[in-house]
Amino acid sequence: MKKLALLLLVVLLGLLPLFVGKYTLYMTIHIMLLSLFSLGFNLLLGYTGLLSFGQAGFFAVGAYACAKILMAAPSLLLGILGGVAVAGVISLLLGLLSIRHTRIYFSMLTLCFGMMIFSLAWKWRDMTGGDDGLVGIPRAPLEVPGLFSINMTPMENYYYVVLVFTILAVYLFYRIVHSPLGLTLQGIRDSETRAACVGISVRNYRLISFTIAGLYAGLAGALLPPLESTVTPPVAHWSHSAEPVLATLLGGIYTFAGPIVGAALFYILKDIIVRFTEYWLICLGVIVVVLVLGFRGGVVSMFYGKGGQR
Amino acid sequence: METLAFQGLVGLSLAMYLWLLASGLTIVFGVLGVLNFAHGSLFMLGAYFAFTFYGLWGINFWLAIALSLLAVGVVGYLMERLFLRHIYHLDHAYQLLLTFGFILIFDDAVKIVWGGVAKIPAMPSFFEGTFSVFGRLFPFYNVFIIGSGLLVAVVLWLLFEKTWWGRMVRASASDREMASAIGVNIPTLFTGVFVLGAMLAALGGALGTPVRVVAPGIGAAMIIQAFIITVIGGLGNLKGAFVGAVIVGLLSAYGILLFPVFELFLIFVTMAVVLIVRPKGLFGG
Fold first, then answer.
1. B283 falls within a domain
2. What ipTM does the predicted assembly reach?
């Protein structure tokens, strides 16, 4: 039953460009990017028990690295994979420092690292274009030299690229959290002391979790510049780090699908609310307050009953 | 050399706004254990109220400041009574999230009430003017700000060290259950502490109105500064907050002079180094 629904969803997403216009495709791409961003974030929060407020930093590293590569060598695959790789390296390095702490100190440290990246994006004009950002990034063709080359100018073509990356990344994530690695992380979340006592290297596992979260943020970031053809410093700002936090809270922290459902809800709610009022943030604020006070399990766990599915 | 000394004075006056902001955050965290993400928004509200009372309605400067403290105190009272009170027992992640929701609410609320434009009223006439120091002109108002910051530091010290209420606060900060057992009314005390913290933030915002621009979103910018300061000084440590504010104030003033491009980066590096080397802060136990 569950598999059938999943298959239906994939088919539906695959056929989407036949039925809807450019705007809906554009929004769907954004939902997929936020889903990837939030999935990685939730590996840290939901599965490892660490609240990061600096994920936008890794998103930005992925985005800026991809943009730089595309401007130098117009190959989509190279840009995206390059962006992910750079974000992975940076998150591994900053992870080494961040995972020395937990709880509120971890949140503060990640916030600090994220804002460090923001201040570089904002001020390091030669490298990042400063507050103007990088402009005129080409949506380069998807090509493997000697094999094929697909033009990416139509939105539908790029949509399929993002869709394929998203499906692969979500599948991989499913495998990760259901592997011994995922179970170990949850063990650490529930009791650090017990995990350490049975011989688990808590720090190493936290570092792995942090790096994977950074890779997912980097992937989401790297998929952005070809879509928008610009990258600007606000993608690195801490208020952008709050988006996966909100999406995850909305969908459900201790669920696999929570961040994805939350990301979709986030954009759908925004799309509906901005039709009625320009003050959409106040509505979002009220939603956050209500969720924290009354529905901490999020939307997904409402379907699974009390406490949600872990 | 004179430029450096003068810039030190500029940094010190900036530090006092930051101190007023960070002191409230620190007290609330130290006693309630909640890191209030919306604390910068209370600073912003203080500035907007002072702007309305003093700049728009023409009320006497001192009275306008007192009224804005009162107004933000009421906001703080409602926030604690209606919302925060229900989440003390939850993980700190939820407390950050709830107060983050309030940033969004306050930011849009000021846009609805006051509009999105930046505002700055005229200086009260008795503060106008400058005097010469280190060969440059220094405004009287900054001297008043430095004086106010130091005064608040002394008053807070007296409040916590020399009064009965201060002792109860310190007792419940160090052991909530024990304090409750010997007759401290914890819920009421918590409300009082939160209102005090809110009013300190409002004071920082209100005192800034004649010289600093008020715009929606400054709350979010200020809270990052406040976090940096409290982390450097030690979360929940009042003396640390004062020293942290002075450090950040001076770093910004000298950073702008010496490394204009990497000023912000420098401040975050300082915070990261302190967090990594001494996570409890310079003054934390």
1. no
2. 0.82
